[in-house]
Structures are given as structure tokens and as C-alpha cells.
Amino acid sequence: MILVNGEPEGRVSPLDRGLLLGDGLFETLRVRQGRPQLWAYHWARLTRGLGHLGFPEIGETEVLDEIARVATLPACMVRLTVTRGEGPRGYAPPAAPALTRIVSAGPALDDAAPTERESLSLGWAAVPIGVNPALAGLKHTSRLEHVMARRSWQPGWDEAILHDALGRVVSATQGNLWLREGRTLLTPPVDQSGIAGTRRAWVLEHAERFGFEVIEAYPDPARIERADALYVSNARIGMTPAVLSEGDKRGPAWQDDPLYSMGIALHEAD
Amino acid sequence: MILVNGEPEGRVSPLDRGLLLGDGLFETLRVRQGRPQLWAYHWARLTRGLGHLGFPEIGETEVLDEIARVATLPACMVRLTVTRGEGPRGYAPPAAPALTRIVSAGPALDDAAPTERESLSLGWAAVPIGVNPALAGLKHTSRLEHVMARRSWQPGWDEAILHDALGRVVSATQGNLWLREGRTLLTPPVDQSGIAGTRRAWVLEHAERFGFEVIEAYPDPARIERADALYVSNARIGMTPAVLSEGDKRGPAWQDDPLYSMGIALHEAD
Is residue B112 pLDDT above 80, yes or no? Predict the structure, then answer.
């Protein structure tokens, strides 16, 4: 089911600024029994984005209700999209936008604990994403550069390391990237490009409790090859181990990994 | 009138990738008597974009027919938008996309020769656009950074100079930027960010005939202040003179400007 401003099977105006200008935000939610996991993190990012873009506020209760309406399976992924709605021609936004909300559900991974999943095979995306601190971190809908990076994947890859236009490794294509070096976790900053993932935020907040220190830095390829383990995080997969698609000696040893208990805690977090 | 895949008053699917991911291209056309001005330039840019994004080809005759259908006034501006259409969830594009075409008309400037227009008052946009050679030049629909730059204009400005995330002046917000220094025209390159305007392309091709040399370079603010004259170009305004909104001693002297005859030729070009 898809809801457009609460209407089942609604359609969207061809003058919607989300459609014409990528003028919108979205959240990808793992929903269990109608409740989005880590909702507080999603809601915080979304409301920060709404403020940054100059959108009016939206009602949390109304949105949660729409999410529950589309989440008809016990476990599913829900995409919540909010655009600036219709506007006059050109870049200038309307003074009082009437936002468009689109809420749709799709299948989730089966709900097995991450320990039972295979490591992701990780390539190197051939197309960079842009550098722009003015929009970095936000999960906005102007995502053509991620589409182009995704198109550059080769067969057999489950994910790909993404670099920015200045050559810095900034994330995976569909999630944030992590290197484990002993009890240190390294993840690239998201203030120049990339998306500030909700699972990334959760790990930053909880790592210490599991005995890890987190540093934010751009890893060069040699460091990625040398790290004790690699992970990718997003709402769909939680924190999942990854190995480079070529010449990686690191086996999938998730169950023996020092990060295992944190990965399970993230998987089960509310 | 608006046509969606040729249908008057059509609506768009909430699963359209243009809406969800900014996965599309557009052209803004000045249409006179149903015919888009400089169509060859628009079509060349659009087909280059379609190829770059991996979209299938579209029919030129069909598109021109739709443009003529919506262009019911003797002079109007038509926006042609092409998105990748519906797709599965996520960034990965469908193997065989069914594109969405949206064609809509709006008012043009009155068709007075540019000599009779006032100079644009030009501010400095406070928000940068990103750097990404992978998408630079294309007129794609992932335009949130232009929306944000446009939002940063101050009252009284008609246009604003846009810089990129590395601080380089790359264009105006809604068009390309030009500095005249004697018989030399300077315009920023569009291979790192910005849009390769059709009027920019026309000037690059025709300047020599009017006795101008063109160089592509990033002008620093001092050079912008010192130039003999400033212009902004786009499909709507052609080539229009501009003065800085604050402290600019250069009067609007378009009729006496060495560029006058070229501006008129562009205005009248087919």
C-alpha cells in the first residue's frame, strides 16, 4: 500500500517540487509490528532536515499512523518521503508550502540475527558523490549521484565503497562504512558529503558501552585493506560485516567478532 | 496545460524515481509560435544527459509535438522534464525504464528586445553548490542545492552569484555568468559543477563572429568588481546585463555596450 497525504493509491501532481527539483527529504524505516525501529533517530534527522530546508513542521502522530497503516506485514521496510509540494516555476520555494507526504512499504530482510548473514561483498564504486557541506548529512531526495554510483557496481557486489569528488572515501553506496581496528571503530565524517545514518548515530552513541572508541576520519584504501574488519550500516541491514570483493583475506567471522554483541543490540534495539 | 506522457492533466506515480530520487533531466525552453528557440542546443544537451544517465532514447518528433501542444501563447516558457519513471526500491535503476515525460507551459518575459530591459541587480548567494564532475554540466532534476542557494537571496536581488563548495564562482543562480573585459568574455567552466547553459553554448560558438574572444576561468570577486560589464544568460532572459547590488559604479548602459549586437542576435536566433 502507498499513501499520498494519507490517501491510498493517491497520485502526485506533475508540478510537485520533489519531482521537478529533488526538493524533498526521506527516511527508510525498518518497521516491526507497525513500529519503526530507532524512530527517535529518524524523527530527529527528519525534523532537522525540515528546518534546514525551510519546510513547515509535520505532525509526528500523523506520520506514525500512516507508517502503521502501510506496514501490514510483521516486518517490513517503509519509505517516508516529504517534498515541498507544488510551487511556482523556478527554484524559489513558495512562501507557505503544502508538503507532500508519501509513505510506502516494501519487504524487509528476514529477521534472522545478523550473525547468520553472510558478509557483504564490497567493491569500489566508479562514480564519486559531490562535496557540499550545505547539504551533507541530510537524507534529501536529490540523490542522482547515488543512483549514478549504484549504476557503477559490478556483478557480484553487494555493496560498494563510495568516494567523493575530492577522492576521499566517505561511505558505502547504500549505508555508512566502518573499519574496526582493535577496539577502535573508524567511520568517515558526514559533514562534507554523504548521509548521517541513523544506525551510524546509534553506534556513535552506544559504542563506548560495548568497549569501543569511535573516530571520524577518511580512511585511505590501504587502511581499508589493513583493518581488522569492515562493516556497513543502514536501517535495512543494521550493522553487517563486509569483505572486499577482491583479494580479501578477512573471512566472514562475525560470530567471533568483538563487535558481535553490539551488532545484536542494534538489531534488537527499539 | 500540462502533459504527462502526452496525457492532459495527467498525474504522476508516487513511485516515480524522479520524485523519490531526483533521477531525471529537464530543459527550460523559450517557445515562440510553438517552436522552441535554440532547439538544437536543448536537444543536444538532453540527449547527452539521457545517454549519461543510462536512459533510453526519446522521440524528438513526439517531444516537439507535446511542446507545441502546451505552448498555446505566442510566447511562453515550456519546461520539459524526463524522469526514469517507476522503479524498484533503492538506488539501483530498473533495467528497462519506462520514462516519464512532463511538459508544461508558463509565461515568458514580454518579448521586448533586451536593450529595453533594466540591468539585473546581482547579489552573492550565501549557500554553495556542490562539486561533482560526474554530474557537472547536466541539467538534472537533483537541484536541491540550487533551491537552497535561491532561498539565500536577499530582497531586491534579481539574481545572485553562486560559488561552489571550494569557494569558486561558478555561475549565477538561475543562469550562467559572464564578465566582459574589453573584447574578452570570461565565463566559469562547468565541468566541476553548474549547468552547461544552451545560451552559454551559443555564445561560445558565436562570440568570435561578433569580435569577442571567450575564456573559461573562475573569476575572483575583485575581477568581478573590475570587469567592464557583467551579464547573466539563460533561456528566459537571453543575455542580460547585471550590476552588483551594492556599490556598483557600472551603470546600465546596455545600448552602448559592445555586446549589444550579439545580445540582439541571441534574442532573435532560431
Answer: no
Q: What pLDDT sits at residue A202?
A: 98
Cβ A141–B19 below 8 Å, yes or no? yes
Question: What is the torsion angle, in degrees rounded to the nearest 10, for the CA atoms of residue B26, residue B151, residue A46 and residue A24?
Answer: -10
Alpha helices in A82-175 (DSSP H): 144-151
C-alpha A258/C-alpha A267 separation (Å) is 16
Query: Considering only CA atoms, which of A147, A146, A195, A141 is closest in space to residue A20?
Result: A141
Residue A24: closest C-alpha in chain B: B144
At A256 the pLDDT is: 74
Last residue within a domain, chosen from B58, B83, B107: B107
Beta strand A169-172 with B2-4 is unpaired
Neighbouring residues of B125: CB distance < 8 A, sequence distance ≥ 6: B149, B150, B152, B153, B160, B161, B162, B163, B173
CATH number at residue A195: 3.20.10.10
Subunit contact B77:A91, Cβ cutoff 8 A:
no
Cell of A22: 529533488
Kindly give the parts of chain A with pLDDT less than 70. 111-117, 251-255
Last residue of a domain, one of A107, A129, A150: A107
Q: Respond yes or no on whether ipTM tops 0.90.
A: yes
Shortest alpha-carbon distance between residue B79 and chain A (Å)? 9
Domain of residue A89, residue span:
2-107
